[in-house]
Specification:
One of its GO terms (molecular function) is iron ion binding. InterPro entries: ARHD_Rieske_2Fe_2S, Cholesterol_7-desaturase, LigXa_C, Rieske_2Fe-2S, Rieske_2Fe-2S_sf. Residues 28-136 form the Rieske domain. With 418 residues, this protein is of the alpha+beta class. The protein folds into two domains: 28-137, Rieske [2Fe-2S] iron-sulphur domain (Rieske Iron-sulfur Protein); 150-417, Naphthalene 1,2-dioxygenase Alpha Subunit, Chain A, domain 1 (Alpha-Beta Complex), CATH 3.90.380. It has helices at residues 5-12, 19-24, 110-119, 170-177, 183-186, 199-209, 289-296, 321-325, 336-346, 363-377, and strands spanning 29-33, 44-48, 51-57, 63-67, 81-82, 86-88, 95-97, 102-104, 126-130, 133-137, 159-166, 215-221, 224-232, 238-246, 250-253, 261-270, 273-281, 398-402. The mean pLDDT is 92. The structure holds FE2/S2 (inorganic) cluster (FES) and fe (ii) ion (FE2). FE2/S2 (inorganic) cluster binds at residues 70, 72-73, 75, 89, 91-94.
Amino acid sequence: MPLKAEENELLTRTGPGTPMGTLLRQYWIPAIRSGALERDGAPVRVRLFNEDFVAFRGTDGRVGLLDEACPHRGVSMALARNEENGLRCIFHGWKFDTAGRLVDAPCEPEARRERFCASVRVSQYAVREAGRVVWVYLGQGEAPPFPDFLFNTLPAEQVCIRRGVVPYNWMQGVEAHIDSSHVAFLHRGFLGEEGPIETSTRDNLAMMMQDTTPKFEMNDTPYGLQEAALRGLDDGSVYARIREIVMPFYTFIPGPEEGPFSARISVPIDDETSAEWYILYHPTRPLSEEAITTLFHGTADDPDNFAANLGQPEHLWGQDRAAMKNGHFSGLTTNLSFEDFVVQSSMGKRVDRTKEQLGSADIIIVKVRRLFLEALKRLGTGEAPWRTGFDYASIHARSVSFDGSEVDWRAFTMKETV
Ligand code: FES
Ligand SMILES: [Fe+2]
């Protein structure tokens, strides 16, 4: 059943005071790469959930996140001086430390300055660096336990994390990450050609091609959902691709069983722009160039926006009809990631879900929307809708083939995670 217009609004509006904005702010969010911030260097603008912030790194290496507008009279703190562990507004010299506290207001008489500083209302945000990314908590009250996913704990050479800025609503990103049935179509062009794709990834795609009408099964978990796409292989065995969806926006996508593994996070910048965080990681060894190339071949050489060269709608994002004639399915020949970004972009900035006509292969999309809408109904009860503080490091998507007459796919999931 298509969504009602008001449900689409609920799912896609994330500004301050909106139900979804309030819900998402209860979770840790990747905000900016650590490498983008220099000690005592220029503050960097960060836009999240329709709000403007600046991030900066102090003299001692700590990172702070402040509202972009100075609490005094609204001057942009992106213009501020970064000096001695704080940002000093260039208008009247108010200075804020990395915790967001006002520590100096030099225009105020010295005798009452300290008291004055303490009386000024400021927004303070919890910040944490992990996996070479600055994460923030924008919600009310104390931050929940930090999500120590495996990729947040590995050495640098075992993780590749990049951000793409894309012109569509965050929910379109989430729905692409959880949609298993598109893989054998949209990404088919990367099968069997000599393109820059890792061999084990191609093997996985080849198995998906053997059955393009997978059966979907799901498992509710306290943190979200496990989804299995089950395909019958030519040799009679079952090939299961098992996604882990850690609500509200962290998705683990099955790749080669021996690694590397993939995770995606779709974060609202505003309601028509999102940050797609793409994470590739190997639990035990450095990532190969080949693995990185498979995901990022031909993308912009900018780790803060690898989608900068995605192309434009008026040119159909550079779709190559000649390549299609020669066997490439989508004609979007840059890489797998751009195939996803282009189809999502082509739906429009905030797709109208009241017009959709869904089929049985969309069961996971329907389920996740329902999880969100139900969680929104419970907002304000004081309880986080999905569990936090479990063993994040054991979350791990799987792709396995097995004798389906003897085993169930659930035998391969991480029961010990919660
Ligand atoms: S506006 Fe920032 S100190 Fe006055
Ligand atoms: Fe995809």
